[in-house]
Amino acid sequence: MASKLVLNRLRSLCRVSQLSDVRFDKLRDPLSIFSTSQNHVAWRSYSEASQPTPINPPPPPPPSPNTSTTTSSSLNEFELAKFSAIAETWWDAEGPFKPLHLMNPTRLAFIRSTLCRHFRKDPNCTRPFEGLKFVDVGCGGGILSEPLARMGATVTGVDAVDKNIKIARLHADLDPQTSSIEYRCTTAESLVEEQRQFDAVIALEVIEHVADPAGFCKSLSALTIPGGATVISTINRSMRAYATAIVAAEYLLHWLPKGTHQWSSFLTPEELVLILQRASISVQEMAGFVYNPLTGRWSLSDDISVNFIAFGTKSAKKDETLD
Ligand SMILES: C[S@@+](CC[C@H](N)C(=O)[O-])C[C@H]1O[C@@H](n2cnc3c(N)ncnc32)[C@H](O)[C@@H]1O
């Protein structure tokens, strides 16, 4: 399958780039991608980067009123404020979350096929995820959590924005099939502290909004049972993504509020494979989402240059996460 070829190419790039030494804070620097040749991805090693010595360490951040967390490494308050401001619109299919509503069938198709294969479930039955525990991290108003629950999964949805969780709860309670979803205003790292674990951990369109993507992936891994699965979707830090996901979607077509995405916060597929690998999650399959402006529909594709989704598995051996 072509998507497997894409993945093999990514894996070989990861090997070439000595990925064990990557500094992800440096990957936030958009100019860093221009400092590489075509065949070499934008990795920077610890040895290449000077280590800044803080003179006055900043005071610890105040606890967020929106969360019930004790650790908050993934929280980016600036990003959370944007979601809080539009929380009421989650279920407006023509509102700011229209792109996610339109993408939902396509991303659910990917989740259904990869997770059914992994957990040896029949993808053609109506409730293939019966008996499996899923967590939807950064669930927003629950537009993914609900169909997962209808497919039989026992779903926990968590989001750092309290308003999102309230909207998700209200909406899920409208249907007996979704009213059993456990919604909580919290973070992945807080669930780790509570020693929660799930068969599958899903975080769609969240990693580009968190403060520390590598730490976030470690939390996702810790939440995944040995032998379990992780699914992440995000946007590639490519020029095409800048042109389409930011300039077109936010400024020309007004699909999303201006400022929804910061290009420098996007991860390339190679970077995502790497940080998941460092968190003991081995990416098995990756696919792109492409939009057809004529039909208004999204479909799965081998083109991962803008929106992409990755399915990975955690080693069946316990506690292999690298520090
Ligand atoms: C673009 S939305 C995606 C929502 C949902 N995953 C989907 O795809 O339908 C990103 C969500 O992640 C949440 N979020 C951002 N940072 C988070 C964090 N550190 N922990 C939990 N949720 C977070 C935001 O509040 C927002 O609801």
From TrEMBL:
Positions of S-adenosyl-L-methionine binding: R107, G138, D159, L204
Disordered: annotated span: 45-73
A matching Pfam family: Methyltransf_23
Cofactor field: Mg(2+)
Membrane topology designation: Peripheral membrane protein
Biased composition range(s): Pro residues: 54-65
InterPro entries xrefs: SAM-dependent_MTases_sf, UbiG_MeTrfase
Enzyme superclass (EC): transferase
Superkingdom, taxonomy of origin: Eukaryota
Cellular compartments annotated: Mitochondrion inner membrane
Keywords: Magnesium, Membrane, Metal-binding, Methyltransferase, Mitochondrion, Mitochondrion inner membrane, S-adenosyl-L-methionine, Transferase, Ubiquinone, Ubiquinone biosynthesis
Catalysed reaction equations from the record: a 3,4-dihydroxy-5-(all-trans-polyprenyl)benzoate + S-adenosyl-L-methionine = a 4-hydroxy-3-methoxy-5-(all-trans-polyprenyl)benzoate + S-adenosyl-L-homocysteine + H(+); a 3-demethylubiquinol + S-adenosyl-L-methionine = a ubiquinol + S-adenosyl-L-homocysteine + H(+); a 3-demethylubiquinone + S-adenosyl-L-methionine = a ubiquinone + S-adenosyl-L-homocysteine
Pathway this chain belongs to: Cofactor biosynthesis; ubiquinone biosynthesis
SUPFAM superfamilies to which the protein is assigned, alphabetical: S-adenosyl-L-methionine-dependent methyltransferases (SSF53335)
EC number(s) from the headed UniProt entry: 2.1.1.64, 2.1.1.-, 2.1.1.114
Residues where Mg(2+) binds: E205, E208, H209
Similarity comment: Belongs to the class I-like SAM-binding methyltransferase superfamily. UbiG/COQ3 family.
Functional summary from the UniProt entry: O-methyltransferase required for two non-consecutive steps during ubiquinone biosynthesis. Catalyzes the 2 O-methylation of 3,4-dihydroxy-5-(all-trans-polyprenyl)benzoic acid into 4-hydroxy-3-methoxy-5-(all-trans-polyprenyl)benzoic acid. Also catalyzes the last step of ubiquinone biosynthesis by mediating methylation of 3-demethylubiquinone into ubiquinone. Also able to mediate the methylation of 3-demethylubiquinol into ubiquinol.
HAMAP family named in the record: UbiG
UniProt subunit comment: Component of a multi-subunit COQ enzyme complex.
Identification of the protein by name: Ubiquinone biosynthesis O-methyltransferase, mitochondrial
The species this protein was found in: Solanum pennellii (Tomato)
Species classification: Eukaryota, Viridiplantae, Streptophyta, Embryophyta, Tracheophyta
